[in-house]
Design goal:
Elements (H helix, E strand, L loop, with lengths): L3 E5 L6 E6 L3 H18 L4 H17 L1 H12 L3 H26 L3 E3 L9 E9 L2 E5 L7 H12 L3 E5 L5 H11 L9 E3 L4 H9 L4 E5 L2 H12 L5 E4 L4 E5 L5 H13 L9 E7 L3 H13 L18 H15 L3 E2 L5 E2 L2 E2 L2 E4 L16 E7 L2 H9 L3 E2 L2 E4 L3 H8 L8 E2 L16 E2 L2 E2 L4 H6 L2 E9 L14 H15 L4 H7 L15 H15 L1
Helix pairs in contact: 2-4, 3-4, 4-5, 9-10, 15-16
């Protein structure tokens, strides 16, 4: 393992900084410090934690230009993409937690049967896991580190972050931003390194691993975590489909397709990587796409829609997909051109599902377009994928569009919009199939960073319960009658009449608050009918 890593600018390849790789011994120290800090942090109420973390909003806004510049240099994004794709979603999530975190994580009372659980109350509460390891990718290093980090902290966890080796300055920036809050010392740790550092981090046995990345990385993380075992949440990218019906607003759909495919130069886990267009409008729509493509600008000048590639290694995948499609008969809008680190976007058509570009995640500025005949074929085409992260359906017939969307094998969908749905802080986000499992964002995502503890409190003064020892044939008959009384056929009085003898086993319940128990019991049974 290298002792140092250089951070390279995605704009021009210059060296931004050199960082020492975190050693295994240091990772153990980080884990110990986080475990010590979380004892203090977990004792805070949710409202107290949210109040402290809410100050991050002020810190971010005060440093927004510096954050943007760092993201542009490290990732190659254009400034507007950095602002809207990285910074804005963090601010939205902070606001969502300010409004809803306390109620989402509040203890919950559960009703009990007055006969099965007399004079008892039941509840469950959510507790933080402890220390969460957050392994984040290079395409959105701020958002995809900070959002799960904030979520973990709101729930009362400590965190150790390991950003991609391509994004180390962003990890350093995140630590600097959070240092301005009143957090317990050691609550947030920053591990620097490549895959080996991630393996060492998991081997230090955090209590939860949250990872975003490719399928191969996800499998490796899952296998490593299983050795301990440690629960994992994985978001592993996609091959997202966009379905355009002939009755769609084609002008809007065209602009959305270009944005969905080429935003961040296609380096988005929910990029439009498969575009299906209904046959009756295919030629018209393709011409609209080609006209729109000609108006896109690449670069970091005053005007710029597409930035640089963050990782030049990814260009090899893009090149392979492009050439494979060309070899198998696809038509293209132009040659594949990489000028320095800037890739010219390309549209492909006459594509088929036996081409790699329609089956494997490209993660680059290529947009394959394929026609479909009818609604069922569109659904079949979209579901013909090993991935299932996000999808969009385009039609002015909202009923039809939502009907189609609900049949897609994805974790998320949008009608007449693209990508933006994943930024809604109240909507759980995650995938199915090879796109991973688990959720973050929304109430479900917040609760994913906690585990549930259930409790039952009995206030009975009885010395015995009907279900306790000793057992006998008589006790079996009594419990059989009880089961029939609770769940058998007939109305309440019929069940009482045929099981009256057996229910004598519960006569001890009449000795304390009999009338109230019986009233509650009747209400309970009436509700079950």
């Amino acid at each position: 393992m290298a002792e140092q890593l250089q951070s390279i600018s995605a704009l021009d390849g210059r060296i931004l900084n050199t960082y020492p790789v975190t050693t295994d011994a240091e990772i153990h120290q980080q884990m110990a410090a986080a475990r010590l800090a979380v004892k203090t942090w977990a004792a805070y109420t949710v409202a107290e934690r949210v109040k402290i973390l809410s100050k991050l909003q002020v810190v971010i806004l005060a440093n927004v230009d510096n954050i943007t510049d760092t993201l542009v240099n490290v990732t190659g994004k254009v400034k507007t993409e950095a602002l809207l794709g990285e910074i804005y979603p963090v601010l939205e999530l902070l606001r969502y937690y300010q409004k809803h975190a306390s109620s989402i994580l509040a203890p919950c009372q559960v009703s009990t049967s007055p006969l099965a659980f007399p004079n008892a109350s039941a509840q469950y509460e959510r507790r933080p896991y402890g220390v969460v390891a957050i392994i984040s990718p290079w395409n959105f290093p701020l958002q995809l580190t900070l959002n799960p980090l904030i979520t973990a902290l709101v729930c009362g966890n400590a965190a150790v972050i390991k950003v991609s080796e391509l994004s180390i300055p962003v990890g350093e920036l995140i630590v600097d931003l959070l240092r301005q809050l009143q957090l317990p010392a050691g609550l947030i740790q920053h591990t620097i390194g490549e895959a080996a550092a991630g393996q060492a981090l998991i081997d230090c046995r955090p209590d939860l691993v949250f990872a975003t990345g490719g399928v191969a990385a996800g499998r490796a993380i899952m296998a490593r975590a299983a050795q301990h075992p440690i629960p994992v949440i994985l978001e592993l990218g996609g091959k997202d489909a966009m379905l355009v019906f002939a009755d769609a607003n084609l002008a809007r759909a065209c602009k959305a397709a270009l944005y969905g495919a080429f935003s961040n130069s296609g380096q988005v886990c929910v990029s439009v990587e498969r575009l299906y267009v209904q046959q009756s409008c295919f030629d018209e729509f393709l011409n609209m796409l080609l006209d729109g493509l000609a108006n896109l600008t690449v670069g970091h000048g005053e005007h710029g829609d597409l930035g640089a590639l963050t990782s030049l290694e990814q260009f090899a995948v893009i090149q392979d997909h492009y050439q494979d499609a060309l070899d198998k008969g696809a038509k293209v809008s132009g040659p594949l051109q990489l000028n320095g680190r800037y890739l010219q976007p390309v549209i492909l058509w006459d594509v088929t599902h036996d081409m790699r570009i329609m089956r494997e995640e490209t993660f680059g500025a290529l947009l394959p377009v394929m026609l479909f005949d009818d609604e069922q074929q569109a659904i079949d085409f979209a579901n013909n994928s090993d991935y299932g992260l996000n999808a969009s359906v385009w039609s002015q017939d909202i009923t039809k569009a939502e009907r189609v969307a609900r049949q897609l094998q994805v974790g998320n969908w949008a009608v007449n919009d693209v990508i933006k749905n994943i930024g809604h802080p109240g909507l759980p986000f995650g995938g199915v199939k090879n796109s991973g499992f688990g959720r973050y964002h929304g109430a479900e995502g917040l609760r994913s960073f906690t585990y549930t503890v259930a409790g039952l409190t009995s206030r009975s003064q009885l010395n015995d319960e009907p279900n306790w020892f000793p057992y006998s044939d008589l006790r079996y008959q009594q419990m059989r009658g009880f089961v029939d009384f609770m769940f058998g056929s007939g109305n309440l009085w019929q069940r009482i009449q045929r099981n009256l003898t057996e229910l004598q086993a519960f006569r001890g319940y009449a000795s304390t608050n009999f009338r109230q128990h019986w009233r509650n019991f009747l209400i309970f049974l009436t509700n079950k009918r």
